[in-house]
Design brief:
Distance between the termini: 26 Å
Largest sheet: 5 strands, parallel
Number of helices: 8
Strand content: 15-25%
Shape: elongated
Strand order of the largest sheet: 2-1-3-4-5
Oligomer: single chain
Length: about 220
Amino acid sequence: MRLLIVEDEKRLALSLAKGLTAEGYAVDVVHDGAEGLHRASEGAYDLVVLDIMLPGMNGYRVCAALRTAGHDVPILMLTAKDGEYDEAEGLDTGADDYLTKPFSYVVLVARVKALLRRGRAAHPPVRVLGELTVDTAARRVFRGADEVALTAKEFSVLEQLVLRAGQVVSKAEILEHVWDFAYDGDPNIVEVYVSTLRRKLGAAFIRTVRGAGYRLEAR
């Protein structure tokens, strides 16, 4: 899953990005409202963490603009303000949840996971493809009765294939969802992770479609 953090307190934003990256998410960070709106409008994000008090364009306006344009990405609003009026205003502009600073990082992660589950309600959390079982909620993988240990990044690559099982997923699409926009390394890193997944899961599960990408198939 790919997240966007729009937060002008740079230390807080980078701390959140570091923690959420460790949870297995690809995380992009911007520090002003206008850039946040641009990124959220153009990028394929699964969730936006949006501060209210931002330079240039506040979070209320960013959220309202996204909803007016038809973007239904889940939005978790952050603010140093408190009170029922502020929360109501945030939710009225189209935010899905609201968290007042200072907040517990554990609580933020729980809210993020809950919103992502809600956003993926159409996708069952446990997917069975032949002898392969993938639990996207618990982030666990089994081949038959044996659990397969994957790193956070390996699981994120596999998750992109699982969510579109039977379809071709391009390297660019995997990069877009698993690595952040600051990644400027070799795009063939996707091939490295796919190769590792094949070694751990069995080569027959992931088929290369030449010139197009990869397809996860039941075996």
